[in-house]
Design goal:
mainly beta, 7-stranded antiparallel sheet
């Protein structure tokens, strides 16, 4: 029964946010190469694969193809969906006049950043091994759904060009219903804590956590004096915000340092907690991640995979390149609205502690677990 209810809720959310529609139609595209030649002459540009024309006759002028493998032995094609979204699957229409075997040996991946410049590890969606008939359409499912902005189709170690006559991508945004209330920055001037803070004695600067929620977006670390940073030697730098009440949170936006060291904003998880992390064990609800390539001084918004109710925001580096790979945040904004009494009380938290114990190998006894769960106090303050 619980599964049926959850499935119905997901279907309702998907229907409200255009799931199943083609979110790739007429979006910007790119490719490793483009075939230019033939009789009659033709240029098989990458945008032809998302023009809405399913004509599978290559010389009809609506199919993409990479160049000959002698020129491009590892061809790929990608589409920019415009923003970070859920990708549930896609369909590929094969060439119909000849060369059906070219739609084979494919890997479909999803990136947050442009795959031609990104060093991130993409999320895997699906593969096409072979067996697609002339002019036929093959349906691929990303199971589970993945998130990102760019969908890339690559054909490594190709023996023939990559040819696609049409690509349809299914997916969309899952957005919370705010009942007509626009979400606002609920983190402004709220209490903030961190696992460590950087002190720059020569400039008489303490990069304390509160600087990241002061409303000052100056990204110059020294002269602006409004950025938080962890210190050298902190191997798991972590930043927390206490929002002071329970909110329905949809996204978290961070401002990167602008004078140097932009690459530090990478390998970061953004989580949402109901309980005070300094008092209780709780498995955070993952809002999303930052993998890297955020420009100096730029804002980056992490749209939560699934919006969630919580009071505390946790931003943590999951890995470090070296001891100077600090967690630096010049401003953090949290987008949300006040959670209702029912949204908080109906939140499923019964297994939070048990999951945290397993995750952290804490080794608590069953008695300890029961005590911690029993100590949970919502503290509504009349809300």
């Amino acid at each position: 029964m619980v599964f049926i209810i959850c499935l119905a809720a997901l279907v309702a959310a998907a229907s409200a946010n255009n799931f199943g529609q083609n979110i790739a139609l007429n979006r910007p595209t790119g490719s490793s190469s483009v075939f230019v030649n033939g009789v009659p002459p033709i240029t098989a540009n990458s945008n032809l694969a998302v023009d809405g024309n399913f004509n599978s006759d290559f010389f009809g002028g609506s199919c993409f193809s990479s160049a000959d493998v002698a020129t491009d032995p590892n061809p790929f094609w990608f589409v920019d969906l415009g923003s970070r979204v859920f990708v549930s699957g896609l369909t590929l229409t094969n060439r119909g006049d000849c060369c059906a075997d070219r739609l084979s040996g494919l890997t479909v991946e999803v990136f947050e950043f442009n795959p031609t410049t990104s060093s991130e590890t993409p999320e895997f969606c699906s593969t096409v091994i072979g067996g697609v008939a002339l002019g036929q359409t093959v349906s691929l499912s990303c199971s589970p759904m993945v998130t990102g902005r760019y969908v890339r189709i690559r054909k490594p170690s190709a023996t023939a060009p990559l040819t696609i006559c049409e690509v349809v991508v299914s997916g969309g945004n899952i957005k919370p219903k705010f009942n007509g209330v626009n979400p606002t920055n609920v983190a402004l001037n709220r209490p903030a804590r961190a696992s460590s803070q950087f002190t720059f004695a020569a400039a008489n600067l303490v990069a304390s956590p509160g600087l990241a929620v002061d409303g000052n977006f100056d990204s110059q670390f020294v002269t602006g004096r409004s950025c938080f940073s962890s210190t050298t030697g902190d191997l798991t730098p972590t930043f927390y915000i206490d929002l002071g009440a329970y909110y329905y949170i949809s996204s978290v936006t961070v401002t990167n340092r602008g004078d140097c060291c932009a690459e530090r904003l990478r390998n970061i998880d953004v989580g949402i907690l109901v309980k005070d992390p300094f008092k209780f064990l709780e498995f955070p609800h993952l809002c999303g991640s930052i993998t890297g390539n955020v420009a100096a001084g730029a804002n980056f918004t992490v749209n939560c995979f699934y919006p969630a109710v919580g009071r505390f925001i946790k931003i943590q580096k999951t890995s470090m390149v070296d001891s100077n790979d600090l967690l630096t945040l010049c401003e953090v904004q949290v987008s949300g609205r006040s959670a209702s009494h029912s949204e908080v009380t109906h939140k499923f938290v019964d297994d939070d502690v048990q999951r945290a114990v397993v995750e952290n190998n804490a080794g608590l006894t069953n008695v300890d677990i029961g005590h911690v769960n029993g100590a949970f106090d919502f503290g509504f303050n009349g809300k």
